[in-house]
Amino acid sequence: MRHLDGLEHIPLVREFDVEDLPKGEVSRLRVTMVTNALGQLLSLPVIVIKGKKPGPVLGITAAVHGDELNGLQTIHRVLQEISVTHLSGTIVAVPVVNLPGFLNNVREFTDGSDLNRVMPGKLHGNIGEIFAHRFTKKITKKLDYLIDLHTASFGRVNSLYVRADLSEKKTAVMAKLQNPQIIVNHVGRDGTLRGAAAVLGIPAITVEIGNPILLQSKLIKSSLVGITNVLSHLKMIQRKEKIYHHKTVICKKSYWMRTDQGGILEVFPQVTDLVKKGELIARVQNIFGDLLREYVAPEDGIVVGKSINPVNQTGSRILHLGIKA
Predict the structure, then answer these.
(1) Could you give the domains of the chain?
(2) 240 class by beta-carbon count within 10 Å (0-12 exposed, 13-18 middle, 19+ buried)
(3) Is the pLDDT of residue 2 over 60?
């Protein structure tokens, strides 16, 4: 048996049209995006699962930040779970959006930019902005719905939570179908992939699946259920939606608390903990162990995410506080 070590057998294309791809098949593509300083192409792996019956186009993207890996494995699980012969409509899956970041095990794109702050990009800009522009043109605009999978960034941990514009009925339904621990209401017009999709009229949610540089099987399994729930809701698959009995906490807003004093940071609450106004949540000591500063919760809330990195510069993040609706 011949083992294929490279990707040379995967078609390299400048662009693709969902309508032109064969029904009832899984198409694997490498979509050209930008070139590096050697003139070599950076091509994006894209998997298109096109059912035999008509239906919507659902996009699933992961690793917009290169060190956020739970979404990658979630997409692989979706591919294993979904039978193309019983699928109505199309799934367009991008396991890794930020290829340079993924290869270098870092969050940022090759120029140091955050791809989730420059969407939908620019026709003429730096390489990150051009990549974002081409991604919008070649991928995002082809979708009817989008689920963008993320995790916390380095030095932080997250609950399983969703960011969505709850004033939009379709996105609110998609968010609740994820069975998350927390849903944060957020419009998302801030350069994010979700926000860029929303501007195009594409209902989109961001699912935060735990922690970076890890594969967390329990959270991946939960995220798989959330995606199959959306597929079921859109009538793309014939499967009953699975709704967990735990209560999802809905937050009307959220924000990160930050330090105003550098030193060794210790954060006390855990993710999903409820905190009360005035409750001690963190402290900072200097290198000799002297107490420099204590931080308390400014209002009642729930811990959406938190810092676990003790090395704290002035202005570092403490915890992500969600304010219940």
Answers:
(1) 12-233 (3.40.630.10), 254-324 (2.40.50.100)
(2) exposed
(3) no
Strand partners, 68: none
Distance CA 224, CA 93 (A): 13
Give the chain's length: 325
- At position 295, the amino acid (one-letter code) is Y
Measured between alpha carbons, how far is 92 from 225 in angstroms, rounded to an integer? 18
pLDDT tens per residue, range 14-53: 999 999 999 999 999 999 999 989 999 999 999 999 999 9
What pLDDT does 7 receive? Answer: 78
Angle at 168 between CA 165 and CA 169, to 5 degrees: 125
Q: How confident is the model at residue 246 (pLDDT cuts 50, 70, 90)?
A: confident
| Residue among 142, 191, 177 at smallest CA distance from 31 | 142
Three-class DSSP labels, 232-299: HHCCCCCCCCCCCCCCCEEEEEEEEEECCCCEEEEECCCCCCEECCCCEEEEEECCCCCEEEEEECCC
